[in-house]
Amino acid sequence: MTRQHTVVESPYGPLTLVATDGVLSGLYMVQQRHRPDEETFGEPDPAPFGETFRQLEAYFAGELKQFDLPMRLDGTPFQQGVWDQLRQIPYGETRTYGELADALGKPAASRAVGLANGKNPIGIIVPCHRVIGSTGSLIGYGGGLDRKQRLLAHERGAPEAALF
User: Fold this and answer.
1) From 27, 29, 126, 128, active-site residue
2) Could you give the CA distance from residue 6 to residue 162 in angstroms, rounded to a whole number?
3) Is pTM, for the whole model, over 0.85?
4) Is 15 helix (H, G, I), strand (E, B) or coil?
5) pLDDT digits (tens, 9 = 90+) for 101-111
6) How far from the centroid of its chain's Cα atoms is residue 2's Cα?
7) 138 by DSSP, 3-state: which?
8) What phi and psi, each to the nearest 5 degrees, are found at residue 145?
9) Average pLDDT over residues 149-159
10) CA-based angle 134:146:129, to the nearest 5?
């Protein structure tokens, strides 16, 4: 298993991209909760990330609404199910933890959904920022609530000045 990483600047601060055997397996923000130790990221090498760079740039420019990248998301079957549900939330929309639990056929599992959401290894691209509390409140974002609010504002088409 070969791991490589690179750091790319974004409107939300530096993002560390990680590839496992040439496939995107991580996107981590600075000071992100559940961020793995940097020693696990592998050698610095931007080579595997060309298409990821292109799509992130288009997303940040407001030109891309849905990512289309090969990804490797390592997790439990339950986490995999949650992360699959995240990828089905349309750009600019939100879902509650309870709605995701219902979609998984486990209506009492909203807390477990929240834990799995927080361990999403590929933030932004697997849009965990689109999950909100049952009252519509912004809760539980591993990248920080400020970033969550800014990502949601970006997807709603808020002017750039409103993002900072």
Assistant:
1) 128
2) 29
3) yes
4) strand
5) 999 999 999 99
6) 22
7) coil
8) -65, -30
9) 88
10) 50
